[in-house]
Amino acid sequence: MSQFCWPVRVYYEDTDSGGVVYYANYLKFMERARTERLRTMGFEQDRLRQDHGILFTVHSIQVDFKRPARFNDALEVSAELSEQRRASLTFFQEVHRCGEAEALCNGQVRIACVDSASFKPVPIPDFIRLELSRVC
After folding, report:
1. Which alpha helices (H) appear in the chain, and where do they start and end?
2. Alpha carbon 108 to chain centroid distance?
3. Long-range contacts made by residues 41-45, C-beta under 8 angstroms, separation at least 24?
4. Is 64 part of the annotated catalytic residue set?
5. Which residues of the chain have pLDDT under 50?
6. Partners of 80 in beta bridges
7. 52 by DSSP, 3-state: which?
8. Distance between CA 100 and CA 111 in Å, rounded?
9. Domain tally, the chain
């Protein structure tokens, strides 16, 4: 899959009392990048639920925090598909300050495809798999 980055600006509300990005907000930044990555492929989360009865939910996450981001930093958040399974996708994600090579944090996020009514795992539909294989 081609490199995908989503721009994020750090707002005051994203920071803690020390003036750095509160750790949980990195997860929000990563969520936005994954959502926008799927959107660029033509998959809107609300349409998947309404038209196909599926949701993508976070199954597990592992994040390493390396350096702090601060108020007003311009960040780039990547979302690269690193693994496809029958009912889940794993993304490798990094958060960088714009123009800097060293990651501020990185993580592996596994999202599960679930039935929107029962929240039980279901296979990823073929039309999504086909698009994923096309862009990889």
Report:
1. 23-40, 45-52, 126-135
2. 9
3. 41/131, 41/132, 41/135, 42/131, 43/128, 43/131
4. no
5. 1
6. 92
7. helix
8. 28
9. 1
Identity of the residue numbered 81: L
Q: What is the pLDDT of residue 136?
A: 58
3-state secondary structure of 27: helix
| DSSP-derived 3-state class of residue 103 | strand
Q: What CATH number should be reported for the domain holding residue 44?
A: 3.10.129.10
> Domain span at residue 75?
5-135
Choose, from 14, 16, 51, 64, the residue flagged as catalytic.
16
> Cβ–Cβ contacts within 10 Å for residue 79, how many?
24
Query: What does the CA dihedral 84, 31, 79, 47 come to, rounded to 10 degrees?
Result: 60
96: region left, alpha or beta (phi > 0 left; psi from -120 to 50 alpha): beta
Instruction: Give the pLDDT score at 112.
Output: 98
What's the confidence (pLDDT) of residue 134?
A: 81
Tell me the two tokens of residue 124.
């990823």
* Residues comprising the chain, all counted: 136
What the block records as the tokens of 55 is 């949701």
In order, the DSSP letters of 65-98 are E-S--BTT-EEEEE-EEEEE-SSEEEEEEEEEET
Look at residue 3 in the predicted model and tell me its pLDDT: 84
